[in-house]
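thread: overnight batch results

M.L. [08:02]
morning all. the overnight job finished for the chain we discussed friday. pasting input first so we're all looking at the same thing
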Amino acid sequence: MSIEDQCISKVLPAEYYTAFFSEVAKGRKPSPIRSLFPLEHTEGLISLLAGKPNPSTFPFTSFSFTASSPVDDSDITLKLDSTELSQGLQYGTTAGYENLSDWLYGLQEYSHGRKKSVDWSLSVGSGSQDLIFKAVATLVDPGDPVLVESPVYAGVIPMFHTLNCEQIEVETDAHGIKSSSLKSILESWPAEKSKPRVLYTVPYGCNPTGMTATLERRKEVLALSREHNFLILEDDPYYFLYYGKAARYPSYFSLESEEPETGRVLRFDSLSKVLSAGIRIGFASGPTRLLQAINAHTATSNLQPSSLTQVIVYKLLNSWGYDTFVKHTQKVAQFYRGKRDVFEAAMNRHLSGLAQWDSPEAGMFFWFKLVLSDDSSVEGDSQALISEKAVREGVLALPGTAFLPNGRKSAYVRASFSLLGEEDVDEALRRLAKVIRDARA
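M.L. [08:03]
and the structure it wrote out:
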């Protein structure tokens, strides 16, 4: 068998995903207009198709912007040419601006070793949250069981809650998802009940815990996905915000290319943490059949991500190239490493003996357990203390229960260190320490 044949034999076929689609996704019809957009580029064809506004009526005549260079911190000025401006002001393709999509395909090869092929696709969305929401709608029916790491990003809890899903909490620790917990859940699953079809995880700098999954854990989770037939929703907005001492672990998206078969990972990336949160650009990478279903959702909801922000972002990224983009992300990561160090130094000054924590190696959060009693067998509850007493004392954070799908009590607290300066960090943790000491009194 040739190498090419071996690669093809590893790819799960398109029909494999039919069993994973929700009833809504199965019943969704293609957009009668957007499905014909590609034909507009046919040579000699006169299109009477789309209700696109005439660009001569748009008041914008030019667009330029200034950005700092990651190489020497000098300012560079970039201007959209007439074609780019025209594309940025008009309706665009559902899956994203073609030039940006091609650049992002190249980024996935550069970062994850996955060359562009017919077996996987990439779609741009209005932030990764937009794409995650559509993926959930595509793969989950009301009442379905879903696997979620716990604690979990609070932004996905309402997605599953609205569908009345049974959110099955998979334990995590400082090394990521505990594969032993996941294995136990799946091996003891009732025979008469359908197993979960998806697992949601944030493997780098998890929000809220700050944990980063180790290589061993990732491989174990991938093996379990094959054994128990579920898809991995790899939400990775903090991938480029890794500042640990060890080499960066490969993503699930990268690792699955080494597996006996590929096509079980649907990956979500975001530019919010490294370029701008306000541009609202994220992208999903994974099996072509899944991305086609997500695109069908987009075509009947928000139609497409913003053309103008995509053109602007492409202009910047294309001027940088991949090496310079990565250099920029490394500078961003080191910025947050410095922020982490400042915050942890203040924690050591004020919270020693009052809280327990692991130092994050990625992202922008500390997840710490309040020590509210000298009796280690007593599990404290941070809800009232953080939501009420800490606020009265002048400090705002999130109690751990907000990140637990089933809302049980928790002694944990999530604190973000991304914005505050050293003086404000010190004062915030001084105030929090007073609240904890008062509660212990």
